[in-house]
Amino acid sequence: MKFNTQHILKCGLAVAFAAAAFCAQSQDAYPSKNITLIAPFPAGGVVDVTARLIAEKMQTHLKGNIIVDNKPGAGGTVGTTLLARAKPDGYTLVVGDPATHIYSPTIYPNVAYDPVKSFTPIGQISYGPLVVAVGPKTKAATMQDLMTELRSEGDKANYGSNGNGSTPHLATEWFKQVTGLKTTHVPYGGGPANMTALASGDTTYSINHIPLALGMIKGGRLRALATTGAKRSPAFPDLPTVGESGIKGYEAYSWFALFAPANLPSAIQSKLSAALQATLQDPELRTKLNSLGDEPSTAVRAT
User: Fold this and answer.
1) What is the pLDDT of residues 107-158, one digit of tens each?
2) Cα Rg of the chain, angstroms
3) In 3-state terms, what secondary structure has residue 252?
4) What's the pTM?
5) Residue 178 — φ and ψ, nearest 5°?
6) Which residues have a Cβ under 8 Å from the Cβ of 255 and sit 6 or more positions away?
7) What is 44-92 written as a DSSP string?
8) What is the pLDDT of residue 28?
9) DSSP assignment letter at 297
10) What is the set of domains in the chain, with CATH numbers?
């Protein structure tokens, strides 16, 4: 059988052009099916709440459905690993935070992703301080009251976190270093479980995400003593910061961002980023995030 090199070359070019045209057409049609947005923490937690707020608004700008799928475990690394292994076609996304992209990859030795190389950044969603909250186990009405109580109890006093490697865990360990406290860490399987334990008197205090603690604080089951930013939170305008309470040198924040798998086509990345930017300009969403103690991000494209 004789092979015509010129004919083979023409056929090869035709296939290549057809594939490129199909690829471009597919990206132009994006999204043509449901998008899965992974929330790598339990339902009812702060990442879950943020993911659902974003999904509701962002899908209207993309003209496609976004379905939030909770995949908790191992400090958020279970769900984040699923994203890292997903096809980079824009149909699987994740809401990440400091736990998934900074703390857990450092704490857990066998994390199956690189926090930078495994992802395509779409944009930052929001950022904000945390809140110091107490339950019925303490009678402290101010941060100074709490510090007196914690120092007198030493390691017999405890604090709850949302799990090893979570933002509340690392934020409280930093607080202990700044203040010299010896309180014992009690990790829980997610934020809701941690807040329930605090409200039940199983733990002494927690430094946690404002959206997570807000409902129980307003309902009187928890008491807020201070927020952890440089300025007061819009969720608690009458509540002092930790610094205003006389404890200097301590600030703690969290942030949330949207990520896709690595090697996402640039056209899809741009479309997602534009949809996120439009979402973050929505007055209703901005008001909702502010009421939860978070500031909508103005730097949309994550770096």
Assistant:
1) 888 899 999 999 999 999 999 999 999 999 999 999 999 999 999 999 999 9
2) 23
3) coil
4) 0.82
5) -65, -40
6) 97, 98, 124, 125, 126, 127, 128, 297
7) TSHHHHHHHHHHHHHHHHHTS-EEEEE---GGGHHHHHHHHTS-SSSSE
8) 65
9) P
10) 26-128+256-296 (3.40.190.150), 129-253 (3.40.190.10)
